[in-house]
């Protein structure tokens, strides 16, 4: 029988095509912010571990300062790719690419920084939270404390009600959409301001289950038919400047099963639940939205003429 870690490893998302990892190299926002955070966090003489290394680029950033970098990758195709790429770059020899499962691997010595970029919007699909929580327990059992610094250090997740267009040249298709954060999409109307629904601090134990219910004040009249999920990764906390180095994932917009007509001034209740590393459809199945204060009905009631009182 397969162990739990062997079952989990099948869902880490590591067996995506190599060209997907190449596209990640071309994501300037991701690359620049990780490079800045790694250059801030990794000091000369440090030892670094990367869990889920892909092309090895983040390990290579670390190798510019670190003495040694352990880069763990489970996909054999990506192991070959990373070794090939690192051999082409200065200080690539400092990175040891290890073909292993991140759920089981421990470095042969204590490390100062752990990079884990198995990040999907909402902490869905990939098992980043499980991997880090498992690593903490095994690391403390072998080496004791303190724990290394994790990158990202924290994740802030928010949700926002939308009216989303699902017309594709006349073909209606309510599909999951991923949108760049710097682009204005004419078919997307924000009906209320986003609200934070979860904060994961990787220095603390984290629960895998997320269940949230919150209220929104509707700012724009429209047909609420989707929820946008926002994930901001706090890659490094720059204490001397009182700031952070962040990376914002693409927005993920999920269609609601039943659209809800809303008006400016309404109060909306939204709820959902899912498990970190779970599937997108599992989250979609729990999403609910309802108007709990109808501003137009209140207006009609208050504006209705008073009944005539007989003399």
Automatic annotation (TrEMBL):
Residue span(s) of domain Methyltransferase: 48-134
Pfam family, one: Methyltransf_25
Keywords attached to this entry: Methyltransferase, Transferase
An annotated Gene Ontology molecular function: protein-arginine N-methyltransferase activity
Record GO biological process: methylation
CDD domains (UniProt xref): AdoMet_MTases
Keyword Methyltransferase found: yes
This protein's record includes keyword NADP: no
PANTHER family: PROTEIN ARGININE N-METHYLTRANSFERASE (PTHR11006), PROTEIN ARGININE N-METHYLTRANSFERASE 3 (PTHR11006:SF53)
Name of the protein in its database record: Methyltransferase domain-containing protein
Organism (species): Zemynaea arenosa
């Amino acid at each position: 029988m397969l162990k739990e870690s062997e079952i989990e490893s099948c869902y880490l998302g590591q067996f995506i095509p190599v060209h997907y990892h190449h596209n990640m190299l071309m994501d300037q926002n991701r690359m620049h912010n990780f490079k800045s955070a790694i250059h801030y966090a990794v000091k000369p003489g440090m030892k670094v571990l990367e869990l889920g290394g892909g092309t090895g680029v983040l390990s290579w950033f670390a190798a510019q300062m670190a003495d040694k970098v352990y880069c763990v990758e489970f996909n054999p195709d990506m192991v070959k790719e990373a070794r090939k790429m690192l051999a082409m770059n200065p200080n690539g020899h400092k990175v040891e690419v290890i073909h292993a499962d991140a759920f089981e691997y421990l470095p042969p010595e204590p490390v100062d920084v752990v990079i884990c970029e198995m990040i999907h919007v909402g902490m869905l699909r990939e098992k980043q939270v499980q991997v880090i929580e498992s690593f903490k327990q095994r690391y403390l059992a072998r080496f004791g404390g303190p724990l290394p610094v994790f990158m990202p250090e924290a994740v802030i997740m928010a949700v926002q009600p939308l009216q989303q267009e699902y017309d594709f040249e006349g073909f209606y298709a309510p599909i999951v959409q991923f949108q760049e954060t710097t682009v204005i999409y004419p078919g997307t109307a924000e009906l209320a301001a986003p609200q934070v629904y979860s904060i994961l601090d990787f220095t603390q134990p984290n629960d895998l289950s997320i269940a949230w219910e919150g209220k929104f004040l509707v700012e724009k009249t429209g047909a609420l038919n989707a929820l946008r999920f926002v994930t901001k990764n706090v890659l490094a906390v720059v204490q001397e400047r009182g700031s952070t180095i962040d990376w914002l994932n693409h927005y993920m917009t999920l269609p609601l099963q039943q659209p809800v007509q809303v008006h400016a001034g309404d109060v909306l209740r939204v709820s959902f639940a899912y498990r970190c590393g779970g599937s997108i459809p599992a989250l979609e199945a729990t999403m609910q939205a309802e108007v709990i204060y109808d501003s137009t009905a209140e207006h009609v009631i208050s504006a209705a003429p008073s009944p005539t009182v007989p003399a």
